[in-house]
Fold these 2 entries.
Entry 1:
Amino acid sequence: MALYVVRRLLVNVLVFVLISVGIFSLVRLAPGDPVRMMVNPEQMQSGGAAFIEAKRHELGLDRPIVVQYGNWLADAVRGDLGYSYVGHRPVSAVLGERVGPTLQLMGAALVVALVVAIALGVAAAVRRNSAVDYGATVIGLTAVSVPPFFLGIVGIYVFSLKLGWLPSAGMTTPGDGGPLDQLHHLILPGLILAFVTAGPFTRYVRGGLVDELGADYVRTAEAKGAGPVRVVLRHALRNSLIPLITVVMYQIPQMLAGAVVIEQVFAWPGMGQLAVSSIGQHDYPVIVGFALYVAVLVLICNLVADLLYAAVDPRVSLR
Amino acid sequence: MTIRSGMRRRAGRYSRGRIGGRGAAAALGAVLAAGTLAACSSDPTQEGAGDAGVLNMYLYQKPKTFSPLAPNNGPDQLVMSFIFDSLYGADGSYELTPRLAEAAPEVSDDAKTITVKLRPGLKWSDGKPLTAKDVVFTYTALADPETGSAQSGKFAAVEGAKELADGEADTLEGVTAVDDTTVKITTSRPAAGLPGLIGNTPIIPEHVLGQVPEEGLGDNAFFTKPTVSSGAFTFVQYKTDQYVELAANPNYREPVSIEKVYLKPVTSDVATAQLGTGEMDLVQVAPTDLPTVEAMDGVEVVTAKSPGFNRIAINQSQDRFKDVKVRQAMLHAIDRKGLVDKVLGGAGTVVDSSFYGELAPAGEGYPYDPAKAKSLLAEAGWDASEPVTLSWVPGQRDRDTAATVIQSQLAAAGMKVELEQVQVDALLSSYEDRSFDLALFGGGNYATEPSTVATIDGCDAGYPDGGNISHFCDEELDGLLERADGVSDPAERKALFKQAAEIEQAGVPYLWLYNPDTIWAYRTRLSGFEPSGMPTNELGFWDFANWKLS
C-alpha cells in the first residue's frame, strides 16, 4: 500500500511536469498579447511603443519560450509561481485567496447533492417503476440537461427580484460578512450547483442499489428474516455506495467547471471567476497557476478515489 | 484510465470492510467541513446595505490597481476619483476647475512657464501637510518611464523630461516647488495646454513613497492598498472581486457627509436588479436599460450630455481609403440620427468632429444622404466588388446593433461590408500591423484639453507611438494644434481650435457616430448627486461634499 502510494505520487509528479509544459506552451502560443492589452489605444501619448517594448522586456516576454519556461520552472520548484501581470501580486497569493470561496461553494453543494442523491436514489430503487422512480428520473435528467447559467438567471429572477428572499450576487453584504450573512449568500448558488451535481449521483445510487438488491446475499439476508429497512440500509445500500465514492471523486473536477459558471453568474469571488477574468486579460502567470491547480486537484482526486475504494471495499488490493 | 491500473479485485472477501468504510466517510466529511469552515471567516465591520451614511455604487468592471502611474483603466480611475485629488478637475462645460489648486493656472505670455498655487492648509488623510513638494514628486514619477509610468508621454513638453526619460537626470528639471504652495513648471516649447493634460492626475504622497526606489515604483504594494490619500474618501480595503470599501476622509478640504462607500463590480444586469432591490444606490446604466430603470419605484433617472463617443477608425494606410471623398461618403451613408433615436432611445448626440461644445464645427456637417454618398463614391472611383471588413469587440448592445445597421446602410450606398467580431487584443494587433479596414470602438474625452486631439489625429502619432489608429495625416491640422498650444490667451486659443475643428471635420479621420449621454439611476434616498457628462473614469468632477443619504 505505502509502496503503491509512493509509486503513484512519482508518476503524478511526472504527469504534472508534462502538464505544465503543455499548459505553458498552449498559453504562450495562443494568439494575444498581454502587454498590448494594458494600454488603451485612445490613451496612447507619444512613447506608447516604447512603453510596450519596455513592459514586454520587464515581463520577460521578449525571450524565447524555452527560456521563459525554464525560468518559470526554476521559480515554481521553489514555490514561486510568479507575479500576476494585472494585479502585481504573487500568483500563489492571488490563487490562495480564491480557494476558500470556491471550496465553500463546492463543499456545501457536494454535501447537499450527496444527501439529496442518496435519498432520492434509494427511494427510486426501492419503488422501481413507480411515480417516485419516474419523478427522480425526470429531476435527474433536468439537472443534467439544463445549463447552470440558465438556472442561475432564473434563480436570481425568482428568489432575488420577485420574492426578495435571497441576495442576487456576491459572497457577503459589503460591511457585514458574518457567517449568517455568508450562508444567506451561499444558499442560491450552492443549491443550484448542488442540483446540477445531484443529477448524475442519483442515477448512480439508484442503479447501484437496484443491482445489489438483486444479489444473492440480499436474498440470503431476507431468508434469515431481516426486515426490508435493514436489508436496504445495512446490506444493499452500503455496498451500492462503493462505486459512488469513486464517482464523487471523479466528479469533483467536473464540479469545478460548474462552479466556474455559477461564480460568474453570482459574482462569487472564487477560482472560476479568477480564471475567466485572467484568460480575458491574458494574465499568463495566473492562467498557468490556475490550470496547474486544477491538474493537481484532478491527480489528487484520482489518487484519493483509488485509496478510498480500497479502504471501503476490501476486495480491492493496491499494488 | 491509467488511474485504475494498480487496482485488483480479490474475489470472495467482502464482509469486513466496515472500519475502512467509516474511516473514508469520516475523512471525506472532515475535508468538506474544513473547506466550509475555512471560508467562514467573518468581517469585523457590521453595517449592512441601506444604512444612512452607507452608499453602494456600481463599478462596471473589476479594478486592477490604484496607481496613477499605470495605463489608464476606467474602473481603476473611477475608484481613484474617490480617494485621490488632483490639481484640477473639470465642470459640466469641460472648463478646468481648481481642486487642490487655488485658482486657474497662470500661463506666461510665451506659454513656457506655468505657475500653480495650491490651496493653503491642505492635508493628507493621515494629517500630514500636502505641499508643492508632493506635486513635484508625483510629476517626476509620472514623467520617468523607469517607475513603470505609462504617462511619461504627457510630460514631453516639460523641460528636462527627455533627460529624465533617458536616465541622464534623476529629477525633472522643469517642475519645482517655489514654496510650500507654489509649483512652477517650465517647458521647452510653448505648451499652454499642459495644465489640462496633466492637471487631473492624482497627486501621490511623497512622505510615504519618497524613499521607494524609482524602478518599479508603479508596482509598489501601496497602489493595491493606498493607505494615505487626499480625496474625499480613504481606501479601506478591496475585497477581491466583491467590493472596494471607502470611508469618509476626515482631513478632506470640505466636510463629507457620506460615511462609507462600497463600489461593487458586478455585471450590468445584476447592477440593474440590485438597484431595484435596494442593494445598490447609484448605477450608471446603458441606454438599452433605460426603460427598465425608469419603471422602478424609488429610483430617479438623470442624464447628461457626454464627450464619450462611439466611432469608426478608417485605416488610411490603405490606398482605397486615402481619398477623403470615400470617407465623407461613408458619413453621408450612415443615418447617425437614426442610430441615436433607435439604438440609444434618443439618449445621445450626433457629432462631426473630436472637438466638443463651443469648439464643435457649426452647420449641418454630414446629414444622412444615401444619394450623395453614392455619387461621392462614384467620383472617387470606389471598387464596389472589393469588400470592406468592419471589426469590433462585441458585448455592448448599442455597438452590436449599430454595426449591423451600418453594414446595411453602407451596402445601400454601394459598399460591400463584412462584419467581424474580434477579441480586444486581436483588434489591437490589427491596429499595430495595420491589417484592419474599419474598426468600431468607443471611449475617449478630448473635451477638457482640446490639444490632446493631436494624440489621435497627429501625423507622428500613428499607433502604437500614439493613439492615431486611422493613420490620418493633415499637416495643416497639426500646425494649428501646435500653434494653439503656444498661445496663452484663452480666447485666441479657442479661435485656433475652432479652425482646427473645421479642418478635422472636412478631413474625416474617423467616422464619428454619436456621443451617448451618460445615464445615471439612483435610489431617491440619495440627494445632491449631479450627473456629470464627463466619462465616469475622469478624475475631478464629482462634488462629494453635496452628496447626502437619508
Entry 2:
Amino acid sequence: MKKLITLALFLCLPASIFAEAKDLKIVTLNGTVSEIVFALGKGKLVVGNDTSSLYPPEALALPKVGYQRMLSAEGILSLKPNLILGLEYAGPPEVIEQLKSAGLKVIIYPGLPGVEPALNNILAIGKEIGAEKEAQKLVQDIRKKHSKIAEKVSKLKSKPKVLFVYHRGTGLAQVSGTETPADEMIRLGGGINAVSGFTGFKPITPEAVIAAQPDIILIPSRGLESLGGKDGVFALPGVKDTPAGKKSRVVAIDDLVLLGFGPRLGQGIEELFESFHPKTTDKK
Amino acid sequence: MIVSSLETSSPKLESKGEEKKKKIPPIIVYAALAVGLFGISILSLKFGSIQLSIGEILKVLVLGQDSLSELEVPHSILVWNLRMPRLVLSMLVGASLASAGVCIQGLFRNPLVEPGFIGVSPGAALAASTWIVFSEKILTFFPAELRGKESFLLQLCAFAGALSVSFFLHVVSKREGGGFSLVLVLAGIAVNATVVSLLGFLSYLADDTQLRNLTFWSLGSMAVASWHKIYLLGLVLLIVVLFFPVLARGLDALALGEAEAFHIGFKVRRIRNLTIVLASLLVGVSISICGNIAFVGLIVPHILRMVLGPGHRTLLPASLFGGALLLAIADLTARTIAFPSELPIGIIAAGIGGPFFLFLILQAKRREGEFR
C-alpha cells in the first residue's frame, strides 16, 4: 500500500521541480541554439540566454545568464526554466551537473562544424520544443541552398585562397587553420583555406600571411568593426603584400551567419559563394 | 630595507603597538571568528536564485529529503547540491591558503610574502596546467580516469609545482642568511615572470577545451564545488592541522633567528622542510581544485597578527578560521553581485588584496620614517 502511494505521488510529480510542466520555459546557452529556437517560431518560450545570443534582436534583449563557458547554476535557476538547451561548449561541466541534479532537463547538442551536424541539431531542437514541422521545413530550405551551391562549386575550375582573420576588440588578430567552423565554411563557399599547417587558431604573423598568399581576406563583420573597417585589415602585418591586399579583396559577413552553423547556414554559404566567385554568379 | 622592520620577530614592530596588540585575548578573537563563520554560512545558504528563510534552511538541514513536502524539495536541492558545497569548499580553500600564508611568512621571516606573488601558487597552477595539456597528449597509455582534469594526479602535480618553487626560493634566501631579503622577492618576481611565459607557451599548445581550463585557473572559481573535492581538500587540511602544534613551536623558534633556534635545541632544517612541504601541499591542492586565488594568505595573517601578536600558537589556528571567513564572504559576493551571471572569485580577492598590500607597504615605509 505504502509503495502504491509513493508510486502515485511519484507519478504526480511535475516534470521539473522548478516550474510547472504546462508551458516550456527555455534557457538557451549558445547563440546558435537561441537563433534556432527563434527561427522555429518558439522565441516566446525563451526566458533567458547567454551572452553569445546576439540574434534576433528579441533574443539579445532577454536576461543573460553569463558567458556560455562560465555559467552559474543559481543564475539559471533564478529564471525558473524547465528546459535548458546548449551546445557542448556549455560549462563548467560541474555547473551542468548541478543543474541536472536539481531535476532540470538539460540537453547538450554536439557543436561540431558541418552541414549534417547543424541540420541534425535543428531537427533535434525542433522535436524537443514541439516545432517538428517548422524544423523540417527549415532543414529542407538549408539543404536546397547547400546543394545548389555544392553543384556550382563542383564545376569550378579554380578556387580562391581565403585567409580567415578573427579579431575581437584588443589584442592580436588570429588566423584560422583547419578543423574550425571558418575552415569548413570556406570549403562550402567554394574557396580554399590559405592556411593548412595547423588546427584551430594561431596569432597572425606577417611571414605566415605572406607565405599563405591569400586572394581574399574573410572576416566576421564585428571583427571588421573592431579593426576599424577595411583599412584596419590592410594595416594588419603582411596583409598588404598579398594578392588580397593588392586587389583589396575583403569579404565581411555577419558573425553568426558565417560561423554559427544555425538557421542562416544556407544564406551564409550563398553569400560566401557569391563573394568568392562574383563572375560566375553574374553569368547565371 | 623597508620591510626588515616588519619582521615577525622584530622588536620594533611590537614596541609601537605592543599594549594594543596583546589587548585582545585569543578566546575573544576565536569567538568573533566563530560568530562570523556562522553568520556567513546562514547568508550563503539564504541568498541566491531563490531566497530561503532561516526556518526553511533549518528544516532542510535537519530533516531528510523523504520527510519534506513537495514544495520543499527544491529548497533541499538548492541547499545541499548548490550552496552547501560552494560554502564548504570556499571555507576549506580560504583556510588552506591563509594557513599556508602563515607558514611561508614564518619560513622566510617576512610578513609581506604570500604564496601568490612569490610564485608558489603560480608554480602549482603551471604544473597543473602542464598536466592538463600533456597528460592527454603524451600519456595515452594511461587509463582514461588517470588523465586530464578529473585525475588525482592533477593535485599531485600541483603539489610538486608548489614544492619546487618553495624549495627553490628557500635555497635562494638561505644563501642570503635566511629571513627577509630583497633577493627573495626578486627571485619570486623572476619565478612569476617565468611561469607566465610558460603558461603562455602552454596555451599555444593547448586545444580549445584545455585552453578554457587554463583561463579558468588564472581567475579561480567556486562553481566547480563538489563533495568529492571537498573530501579531498578536507583530508589534506586535516593532516596539516594535526601538525599545527609542531609547526607553531618550530616557526616561533625560527622567528628568533636560525642560529638561536638551533642553540635552544631545535632541528632547524627539519622544521624548514616540514613547513615547506605542508605549505606546498595546501597551496597545490587548493589551487588545483579551484584556480589561482591570491592575497588570502597575506591579508588574513596580517590582520590577525595585529590583534593577536606574532605568536604562531594562536596565529595559525586563527588564520585557519579567518581565511575560511574571508573566502566564504568573497564567494557569496562573487555569485550575487552580478546576478544572474557570476564573477570569478579571484578577481574579488585581488580587488581587495591589491590595494591592501599597497597600504601595508606604505605603512611599513612610514614606520621607517621615510614619509616625513
